[in-house]
Design goal:
- The radius of gyration is 23 Å and the shape is globular.
- The protein is α/β, with parallel strands linked by helices and 485 residues long.
- The strands form 2 sheets. A 9-stranded mixed β-sheet has the order 14-13-12-11-7-10-9-8-15.
- Helices cover 40% and strands 20% of the residues.
- The protein is built from 19 helices and 15 strands.
- The structure holds nicotinamide-adenine-dinucleotide.
- Nicotinamide-adenine-dinucleotide binds next to helix 1 and helix 3.
């Protein structure tokens, strides 16, 4: 039964994309035949009727509605309006409209939405492997496209997007919210000041815990043909940060990866957590019924598409890696050692930039460091507070150490919510003030989105083919010693 539902889900997605591709081919046939859609803005007449920017969104899941949907309505209602929402799941669509508190039309057919609503901007928040379909069509329909990371999941889809941007003259922007976090922005600033000389190598290690890390294996992220593996889905955030910090393009990638914790690597497996016979013995048991939002979004809409949110993370079909190690060589000769682990006892990261005259270290969420910060830096505050518990991690740390010299600790104000406060800054730059000064070049365009996923694609290929992969093997993009923005 469960297998059948899963099959239905898969078939539904495949059918939808085939149908959409057919419709798309018809549309792009018109482009080839008459050339009239080459400037589709004219054809669609994207004239704002209210003076507000007209936005459509495809992919009404948790990210689409919870990050781009509702907050954008709440924060920028004076300058933008949602004119259409699209999803293959009609139940999630109806919920999205209610959740966002808007009155626009909803669509299960993307082309109908684009033709009827004529948006100026399209936001793409569907399953990763489908992004390219909507990005390309969005551009062809004359909209500027804002896509969630990852840009896409393989090199051929990436090339199609690159070609479409060139052909249409419309722009793609990638929502790399991590760049905007306070710690990551400060690191960029410190590196730009060249305080430890020319950077020669970077050590970057990211740990996902047994809650967040495990969650990727419960749903579509666990399938390579949906997420492209975590080398794309998750690590594209990290690869983008590396490209941005190092300010150069990757040229070659060598990687190792294996699935040896989740998936088939367990002695038992059940249906979904809700009905699982092993719930009392499985340390990863997840009770979705306690989360009202997830129940409404997913469980109540399973009947439409069979998307199971609390799937068993021991499913045999899981075919992504759960540990990954990647070596990257950059065009400016920086070399990177990166790793991603998905079953750590805590969630955190360590990073170090080795320079010719010193080293920059930083980390986030390492439990022993947080303890120390309480006992050292905040001890006095705690004493003065007389029992009122002080904020334990009110700052992140960067240590700049000079060879044969001193070390300086830079304290960076810590913001827990919204990826270090970065989410709001990203949204402000996109919606409120697109022309605001951008001295650290936070805004990410198509080339940035492509370079980030191409490291992941190359790493996956390197693991599959047991050889180093050159970035220029993958698409028409040629790596540059200094990043082109
Ligand atoms: N930047 C970040 O920090 C961040 C965080 C979370 C998610 N994301 C990204 O956001 C996107 C959505 O993730 P999510 O967690 O919301 O997933 P989700 O599963 O909750 O939502 C995906 C939605 O897309 C819909 N969908 C799937 N295929 C479709 C198709 N062909 N046409 C129309 N709709 C389709 C699904 O029905 C679902 O409603 C992903 O690309 C993910 O990588 C980014």
């Amino acid at each position: 039964m469960a297998k059948q539902v899963k099959e239905n889900h898969k078939n539904l997605s495949i059918k939808t994309s085939i149908m959409e591709r057919r419709t798309f081919l018809k549309t792009s046939g018109a482009v080839a035949a008459g050339g009239i859609l080459l400037n589709p803005t004219n054809v669609l007449g994207n004239t704002p009727m209210t003076g507000k920017k007209r936005i459509a969104l495809v992919g009404a899941g948790i990210r689409g509605t919870g990050f781009w949907g509702k907050p954008v309505v709440e924060q920028y209602d004076d300058i933008v309006e949602f004119v259409g929402l699209c999803d293959i799941n009609p139940g999630r669509l109806a919920l999205a409209k209610k959740f966002m508190g808007i009155a626009c039309n909803t669509y299960t057919d993307f082309d109908t939405m684009m033709r009827e609503t004529k948006p100026e901007m399209l936001i793409v928040t569907t399953v990763d492997a489908t992004h390219h379909e909507f990005i390309i069509k969005g551009l062809e329909y004359g909209a500027e496209v804002l896509t969630e990371k990852p840009l896409t999941t393989d090199e051929s889809k990436c090339q199609q997007i690159l070609d479409a941007e060139k052909r249409t003259g419309q722009k793609v922007r990638v929502g790399f919210n991590y760049r905007y976090g306070t710690l990551f922005s400060k690191l960029k600033e410190v590196l730009a000041e060249q305080r430890v000389g020319r950077i020669t190598s970077v050590d970057f290690h990211w740990y996902l815990n047994t809650y967040h890390g495990a969650d990727y294996f419960r749903r579509w992220h666990g399938l390579r043909d949906r997420s492209g593996t975590l080398l794309i889905h998750k690590a594209s955030h990290h690869f983008d940060l590396l490209n941005w910090w190092i300010d150069s393009d990757p040229v070659e990638v060598n990687a190792y990866g294996k699935l040896e914790h989740y998936g088939k690597n367990n002695v038992f497996r059940g249906d979904k957590c809700r009905t699982c016979q092993y719930r009392s013995q499985c340390k990863f048991f997840f009770d979705i019924t306690k989360d009202e939002r997830l129940m409404q979004l997913y469980v109540e809409n399973e009947k439409y598409d069979g998307y199971i949110r609390d799937n068993c993370l021991w499913r045999n079909e899981i075919d992504i890696f759960d540990k990954m190690a990647v070596q990257i060589k950059y065009a400016n000769d920086v070399q990177v050692s990166y790793s991603l682990t998905t079953y750590s006892p805590y969630e955190g990261l360590t990073i170090a930039f080795n320079g010719m005259t010193g080293r920059v270290d930083s980390w986030q969420d390492l439990p022993w460091r947080d303890q120390e910060k309480v006992s050292q830096a905040d001890r006095h505050t705690r004493e003065m507070n007389q029992g009122k518990e002080a904020e334990t991690s009110a700052y992140d740390e960067i240590i700049v150490s000079e060879n044969f010299g001193k070390s300086e600790m830079i304290k960076v104000p810590f913001v827990r919510g919204g990826h270090g406060g970065g989410d709001r800054r990203l949204q402000d730059q996109i919606f409120r003030n697109p022309d605001m000064p951008d001295p650290l070049k936070h805004a990410a365009g198509l080339r940035d989105g492509a370079m980030a996923i191409l490291i992941g694609v190359a790493a996956r290929k390197s693991i599959d083919e047991a050889r180093p992969i050159k970035i220029e093997e993958l698409t028409s993009l040629k790596p540059h010693p200094t990043r082109i923005t």
